[in-house]
Each structure stands twice: as structure tokens, then as C-alpha cells.
Amino acid sequence: MKLPNLFLENLARDNKEFLNLLDLTAKVHGENRQPVGKTDQAFWNEDFFHLRDSSIWKSLTDEKKKQVLVKLSQKILQEAYFIECAGMAYAGKMNLAAKSKEERAFFCFVGEEEAKHLRLIESLTNFNTTLSDIPSFALLIGEIIQEASKPSHLLMIQILLEGWGLHYYKSLAKASMDEDVANAFKSILKDEIRHHSAGVLLFSSHKTHLGLTSVEVAEFMDYLERVAFMVKIGPYGSCEEIFKQLEGHGTPEQLETLLTETEAVRKTSDKLEILEQLLCKSLPDEVMKSIREKGILKPLNLKEMTQVLAQSIL
Ligand SMILES: [Fe+2]
Ligand SMILES: [Fe+2]
């Protein structure tokens, strides 16, 4: 996947004047930024990743378990960070495309909120922010923001992904072992509820006034298929980190066991169901029918999931 150019490099640290001005502006807008004090910490435990009952997980030493949990925590924050980077650009795109003064004002506020989210996540701990290592889910979101036309990006970004974010961030806040991390996700959640609601309203108005053309539906289906595939291989991140800790190479049988013991198929199908519910509320019946007929939101079975994950992990 090519790097969407909405992901930008960090400004060099010697641009002190501009960086100070940014910090001052954030402060005026209510930010109370603390220096990053926590490094190499796990913010979520084995229960959050459904690992407690896994025999492969239990076979790891405490040190290796800690390494996996730290790495997975960093991956969660890294992905959230790049999604917020993309969110700032999305607010800019919606600002320019606004159809009323009020809509534009709304997206000016959204831009401010996404910048606050980004800086909040950045302040929690150290993680990899190199552009060449952007997680593929965030890259795809960036591509949709940059390339997709209006009904598609309203559906994909504000209805599906911000709607999905509400469930996901709620679970991150609830399960985090760290108060600062839990509070950060709780405060992001409050804003994302409004961003998602705006998407539902704007798409409904687009549908009423302009309808959906077959080209628009096809574009949306294509993006949905790509997002759904990433959800279908959801346990990829945790499996990858665990297999890195095994002595020697893991086998497809071990991978299948890990997926079975962590109930990966059931958990993935719960996630796909949330996506379907979010879309159901906004999409015309015939588009939902076509999504079901094509099996776009149908989970992989255990064998399929093992096969797909084995190609990248083993
Ligand atoms: Fe956000
Ligand atoms: Fe948002």
C-alpha cells in the first residue's frame, strides 16, 4: 500500500519558536500537557487480548509475556495515533467541502478535537511514529480519506470507522490498567460520539437529496471489503507478537491452537456484527442485501483464518 501524503513528517525539534507557539495554542484551548514519563509499560493485560486460557501463552516466561503485552500496548497507541493524524486531515477535507457555514464551523471544531486527541495519545508513552511503519489499518483509513468521494468517505470514515471507534475506545478505556490511558480514551470517546452522529446526519441528507449512484455504491463496496478483511484477520497483531517469542519457528498447528483457545473466530464475528449494525442504520436495504450476498462481512472460519495468518506470521 502506498503512503497517503496526508501523513506528514514531524517538524524538526530545532524549530523551537513554532513548536512553542503550538504548545501555547494548545494550552489556550485547554490542554494540560505532562511530559511523557511512562516507557515500556503494558497498559492492557492478558485478559484484554483473550490470552489467559491459551496453552502457548502459558508456556511463555513472565519476561516474554511482559514483552508481548508492552509491544501490543504500543501497537494500539501507534494505530490510534496515526488514525488521529488522518482525522485532522479529514476535518480539513470536510471543511473545504462544507455546504453551509454551520457545517464548516462544525468541521473546524472537529479539526481542533482531532489535534487534541493526537497530542493526548502522543503524551501517554513512547511508541514508533516513523512514517514507514504506519500500521496497515491506519494506512487504509488515510487512503480512504484522501481518495474516496463523498458518500463513500462519509460512510467509511464517520459512520463505520468512527462508529466502530466508539465500541473499540470504550473497551480500551474500560480495560486499561493505567488511569491516564483510560481517561485519555474516555475523553476522546466523548468527541467521537458527535463526529459519528454528524456523519449519520450528513449521509442521510446526501441520500435524500442525491441518492446513491451505482458508481458510488461500487466504490464504497470496494473500500468496505478491504476494511472488513482487516477486521477478519483481527487477531493478527497478538498472534504475531506471541510467535516472535517462541523458541524456533511456530507451526500452523500451534497457530490454529492459539486461534481456537483465544476464541478468535467468535470474537471476530462479534466485531463484524457491529460493523453490520452500524451500516444497517444508514444504508438502503438493497445495498445491505448485496453486502450480505457477497459475504463481505462474513467471518473467516478457523481453517481460513489459520491459513491467512500463517502466510504472514510463520
Ligand atoms: Fe479522533
Ligand atoms: Fe473523530
Description:
There is one protein chain. By secondary structure, the chain is an all-alpha fold. 71% of the residues lie in helices and 0% in strands. It contains 13 helices and no strands. It has helices at 16-28, 55-59, 62-97, 101-122, 136-147, 150-175, 179-210, 214-232, 236-245, 252-261, 264-280, 285-294, 302-313. The longest helix is centred in the N-terminal third of the chain and has 36 residues, at 62-97. It binds fe (ii) ion (2 copies). One fe (ii) ion is lined by residues 84, 87, 114, 117, 188, 192.
Q: What bound compounds does this protein have?
A: fe (ii) ion
**How far is it from the N-terminal to the C-terminal residue, by CA?**
21 Å
Strand content: under 5%
Largest sheet properties: none
- State Rg: 20 Å
The best one-word shape is globular
Give the overall pLDDT as a whole number: 94
Total number of helices: 13
Query: What is the chain-wise order of helices and strands?
Result: HHHHHHHHHHHHH
> Which percent range fits the helix content?
over 70%
Q: Would you tell me the structural class of the helices and strands?
A: mainly alpha
Sequence-ordered SSE layout with sheet pairings:
Elements: H1 16-28, H2 55-59, H3 62-97, H4 101-122, H5 136-147, H6 150-175, H7 179-210, H8 214-232, H9 236-245, H10 252-261, H11 264-280, H12 285-294, H13 302-313
Helix pairs in contact: 3-4, 3-5, 3-9, 4-7, 6-7, 6-8, 6-11, 10-13
One fe (ii) ion binds at residues 84, 87, 114, 117, 188, 192.
For this entry, give a set of tags:
mainly alpha, binds fe (ii) ion
Question: How would you summarize what this structure contains?
Answer:
This protein is mainly alpha-helical and about 325 residues long.
